[in-house]
Sequence to fold (280 residues):
Amino acid sequence: MVKLLVLALTAATAAAMPAAAADGPRRKAPAPVDPAALSGEEREACAAELEVLEKRLRLFEGQGLSHAEAQRRNAASQAALDECARTFRLRRAADKAREADLAELDRRAGPDASDRVRSEIWTQLRLERLSAKPVSELTEDERAELKEGSKAEQAETAATLDKAHSRDPVFMRMVHSSLACYHGVRRDRIKDDLRHEEALLKLGQGDRQRSYALKSDLRQSDEVLARAREAARSYREGLGRCTEEQVAVLAHCLAIQFEGKVQEPACEAAEIQQYLRFIK
Fold:
């Protein structure tokens, strides 16, 4: 587990590196769109941007500026046309791809598939298509679709893992051990706070509502500890000690999760989250 934390911290450090260092050499910027090369549909879709660009070019050239200087001064208008043409082409390509996907859906599902089956096949098909495309070629709608599909896929994978982990005695021993250690420390802290609050109440200075809340928290920890002691009977070696590195790491991350503390990158590692997600 300690090795996992080191790996997680290393990954977090690498993620914080400047983008240029992480991504390597930058790609060459695409050439500006030539208005003369636009198709009729592209000219119609980008009519406003094209009109501004051409008017400004005529204005600058009418002032006696060279073509190169007019182009330089018109860089913002050119960029607007470039973006419009790029967006139009991406959307047109996406529409054609969707038509192809619908045809593929019919082929895979067959004529007798239910709506549920067709929906499942469609989701899988779209994820296959979008995952294979370079991110730079995805439209905003496609990015959102891929993100939602990935979330659903991750949730399904997590649910399958949780089910398997619930039957794994080694995994569950670690869960109960870390819970017992966290709630043991929490119970002692609550008891101290409760004694202090009750002493203030006797002096007429305490907060009765806080006292009730502390008692409720104490019962919660007692119940978790009772379940952990019961579970320990099924493990030949009982629960792990709180001084064991694996148990200590998980108990620490549990404290962060349950008490709303500032998250640590190491606790966000997938190897740690599989325990924390299960405990939730």
